[in-house]
Write a structure and sequence with these properties.
six-stranded mixed β-sheet; 2 domains; 4 helices; alpha+beta; elongated
């Protein structure tokens, strides 16, 4: 699948306005025909060109086929290039570098498949998802953001988007006081002990600059 970009992008005012201070050029062509593009994923899981002046729902990518393709190929950037973009989604001769507000996997919706709960990511519909295990929800103490285990080959953890985290917050219980991490989660009339399984992983990612 080829990721299309406007042919005249290099001549636009947007290009000229940003290339004087950014560390990259959108659509830059390297040897062997390799072309570079740069993207940004926000805390709600929306995907943008990194140099988009305004980042909101009107300017994010919405085509679910493209989003499924793009997010299914994200991996850690080990190219040695553009290290300020920790992730990459390769497509043939295109290198699509990615930086994030937090993490590249952002869970946006809770769905059910065969009566089992799943968390979706990538805003690509129901195709991209992981099984939801409520006991593994983790609230990060410094930010109050909520996380859940993600893809093993991509950090192993994902961020729960703001709207979904607000919905989940109704079911957190704080037996050690609200100044401490939540201890339990009410789910289907069951009081579940939270394991905080990804807390140490988040600390390591933040130390490495991947979150």
């Amino acid at each position: 699948m080829i990721i299309r970009h406007p042919r005249n992008f290099l001549n636009t005012s947007t290009f000229k306005r940003f290339t004087d201070w950014r560390s990259y050029i959108q659509g830059n062509v390297l040897g062997k025909g390799i072309r570079e593009y740069f993207y940004y994923i926000d805390h709600n899981g929306m995907l943008f060109l990194d140099d988009a002046r305004i980042k909101n729902f009107t300017s994010c990518y919405k085509d679910k086929t493209f989003l499924k393709f793009f997010f299914s190929r994200i991996r850690i950037n080990e190219t040695g290039c553009h290290e300020d973009f920790p992730y990459i989604s390769p497509c043939g001769r295109e290198r699509n570098y990615i930086r994030c507000d937090d993490l590249p996997i952002v869970f946006t919706h809770l769905i059910y498949k065969d009566a089992n709960p799943y968390l979706t990511y990538g805003l690509a519909g129901d195709d991209l998802c992981v099984k939801f295990n409520p006991n593994e929800l983790t609230m990060y103490p410094d930010s109050g953001r909520v996380y859940h285990p993600g893809l093993e080959d991509l950090n192993g953890v994902g961020l729960v988007c703001s709207n979904l985290a607000i919905e989940f917050s109704k079911y957190f219980e704080f037996e050690n006081g609200e100044e401490s991490l939540p201890t339990h989660f009410r789910w289907n009339d069951e009081k579940i002990i939270l394991q905080n399984t990804v807390l140490s992983l988040l600390e390591e990612l933040k130390r490495r600059g991947r979150s």
